[in-house]
Write a structure and sequence with these properties.
3 copies of one chain form a homotrimer. Chain A has helices at about 30-45, 60-70, and strands at about 10-15, 20-25, 75-80, 80-85, 90-95, 105-110. With about 110 residues, chain A is an alpha+beta fold. Chains in contact: A-B, A-C, B-C.
C-alpha cells in the first residue's frame, strides 16, 4: 500500500476502527512470541472477571480491556518508499474476541 | 474542530500534555464498559502499592502507571471532513487522579 | 532535531525500531517515578513466567510483553518550533532487556 502511494519519504498512520481488537508491533520471527503474548494477556485481562458489561458475551469486556492497553493507531515513518520497521518488527492486528470478526483498518500516507 | 479546519482528507493527531491522565479509544455505547475499565485498571495499578514517589498523594504514582500503559497521542485519519472513527469508537481523556484536574490537549490537523 | 528541521508548526512522529524496548512519555521531575514504573512493570510482566519463547534468555519474552503495552510510536505536535510537551513530560526510550542494547529511533517531522 505504501509502495502504491508513490511516497518516498513520509509518514504512514495505521488506524484500527474497533474497540475489541487492537494494533501491536511485535517480533516477526518466532511465532512462540505471539503465543506467549496471548497467554499472558489472558491473565492480565481475564475472561473470568465479574464484569458489569456482559451483554455481548464473556469474551467482550476482556477484549475492551486488552484493547485499552495496546494500540488503536500507530505512526510509522516511510523512507525510500518503505515503512522503516526494524528487522524484527511486524505490525499485527490483534483480535481479542474469542471468535474471528471482520476488522477495518484505515491507512493514511503523507509525504513526498 | 476537524470540520473547522477545512481538511477533507488528512490526519488528526491528538496529544495530551500530562503524565497522570491519558487517552483511550473505547466503546461509546454502554457506559458500563468505562466503569469496568476503571475498576480493572485500579487492580492493575493499585493505589496501595508501596511507591517511592508519594509526595503528591497516594493517587499520583498509580496515575503515572496507568498513563504509561494507555496513550499520550493518537493519530486518527480524516475522510470526508470527519474523523474516521468506527461506529462504536469514541476518544476519551482518562483522568487517573482521584480528583479532577484541568487537562490540556493539543490537536494537530494536516491534509487537503 | 525539531529546531534543525525549520518547522514552526507541525507534527513530530517518533518511532522505535524494536520489540523489546519501547517509548513512554512520563514525568521528568522526580526520578523515583521511573524507578516505581520499572518495579511495577517487573510485576506486570515478570521474568519468571514459564514462557515458550526463551531461546534469547529469560529477560527477552518479558521485554516483548512490556513493549506490547507501552508505545512503538508517538505523535507530538510542534508549535513555535518546539515539541508541545507538557511542563512535566519527557519522552523516554524504555529498555526492557536486562542489559543495554543499541536502539534506533526514526524521527519524522512535517509542517510549515
Amino acid at each position: 500500500m505504501v509502495t502504491e502511494s508513490d511516497v518516498t519519504t513520509g509518514l504512514c498512520t495505521v488506524f484500527l476502527r474497533h474497540t475489541s481488537a487492537s494494533l501491536v508491533i511485535q517480533e516477526n520471527a518466532d511465532p512462540a512470541v505471539l503465543r506467549d503474548l496471548a497467554r499472558w494477556m489472558e491473565g492480565v485481562a481475564p475472561e473470568q472477571g465479574d464484569y458489569e458489561h456482559d451483554a455481548e458475551g464473556p469474551d467482550d469486556m476482556p477484549s475492551h480491556l486488552r484493547a485499552s492497553i495496546t494500540r488503536s493507531s500507530e505512526g510509522i515513518p516511510i523512507t525510500r518508499r518503505k515503512l522503516c520497521l526494524g528487522t524484527w518488527q511486524a505490525l499485527y492486528v490483534w483480535e481479542h474476541r474469542a471468535t474471528g470478526h471482520r476488522r477495518e483498518l484505515v491507512v493514511h500516507v503523507a509525504g513526498d
